[in-house]
Amino acid sequence: MPYDYPSSNPPLYTINGDWITSEYSVILSKKLMEIWDEMIGSPIIFIWTEYLKEECFEDLGVDISDLLYPTDKSVDTVLPEDIPDFMIYSGEPLTDRKSKFQAFIADVHNEDDVNTFLAHMYKNKKIANATHNMYAYRFCSDKNDSATINETRNDDGESGAGDKMLYVLQVKNAMNVMIVVSRWYGGIQLGQARFKHITDLCFSILSDWNVTKLKEKENATVTKIRSINTIFNRIKWDETLDQSNFIVGYQGATTKFSEFKLDVGLIEYIKQNDTVVWD
Predict the structure, then answer these.
(1) Of the candidates 124, 127, 88, which has an alpha carbon nearest to the alpha carbon of residue 107?
(2) Residue 186 and residue 92: Cα distance in Å, rounded?
(3) I need a labelling partner for 177 at 20 to 30 A (CA). Which of 112, 114, 236, 256 fits?
(4) In percent, how much of the chain has pLDDT > 70?
(5) Quick check: 27 pLDDT over 90?
């Protein structure tokens, strides 16, 4: 402590923290000195401490919830594995300013289905390490000869997100369905844009899911239809599958799966060795 504190000089200090970058350190140092200049000659340590505990996050543009629930920065988007009689569909991933979002959807008819869905998701380490795994669901159950709508949402730390997800299900009159949106925080606050991304992903995956369900009804000979996006993502992200064994056919041409860079909508078929796995 300087001998002339607090009459002339402030206390000596060092700013350290796992999440504090050099940029954050400069901002905090500048702010601490501004506080000192306003109160020179008065004890300042307690006031500095309160600022660092309560107010500094706003000056840094940091959401404290993202510090309490950190994400693995090396995470990439992933697709859960299928489980018997319980298909989980994935939506297209979305990235904005290093934050990654991805939606997942499945049929649910009771609380057991809900719990199975969540348990299956959290078995995947990368999804379990997401900053937020928000969800909403609606299903109809018959109790005492009357239909009861069960609906619930969960923000998982992203305050207000669950309400917006449930609203999507309500406005689309979706029933017996559950949506999970995973977010991997990238270090930059998105403000209200994050809610738009979450809502848009819910609308998109619900639309894709409805189209898939309609195709299943139209083709009674097919017991289970999965969209090309689901197949493509599964091959791309499932570490148990060797991409070198897959060939993509498109517009009369063929190429190795790993070399296909065009829109997946152009794919006519996918072969694993000599067996067609999607057409």
Answers:
(1) 88
(2) 18
(3) 236
(4) 81
(5) no
